[in-house]
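Re: that chain you flagged

S.,

Sorry for the slow reply, it's been a week of failed gels. I finally had a moment to sit down with the sequence you sent. For the record, here it is as I used it:
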Amino acid sequence: MSGELHEAKRPVSAVLAGPYGHPFHPMLVAVPIGAWVASMVFDLASRFAPSPGFLAEGSKWLIAIGVLGALAAAMAGFLDLFAIPAGTPAFRTGLLHMGLNLVITAAYAAGFLWRQAGTAAGMTTGAVALGPLLLSAGSLALLVVSGYLGGKLAYRYGVRVADEATQADGFRR
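Prediction finished late last night. Pasting the structure tokens below so you have them in one place:
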């Protein structure tokens, strides 16, 4: 088992997934998380602003940035998943994390298209409609759950985290 644990910490491809102890996936997830949280702020602000069109438009493009960022993060995350031995609790958690993220990304992509259709229909001056806002809120709630699972992979199971002997280097004087 210790051999499997050691291998789960090593990247499938250091060039594509990041070197040992410094994976790319956690760095890349900041883009979709930040963009989608900001889009929710814009959505809510559009409900209160006297001229909400720019907020609704900004939110739509933040969603698009988040989708593109999620696709980049997914590629690195998929490589990290390959390093986890199949049939383990860590692997099952990784599959659930990945599945939720795919659903979330698809929901945001659908939300972008929904908003884009509204823009094409000339609805660019108003606040974000309730339907797209609720889709984003639900997607953001799922993102919190998926983020919890990602944290469990890193902090509970140590996926792609350097072993304790390597970590000890950071605490030597």
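What I noticed first: The radius of gyration is 19 Å.

Talk soon,
D.
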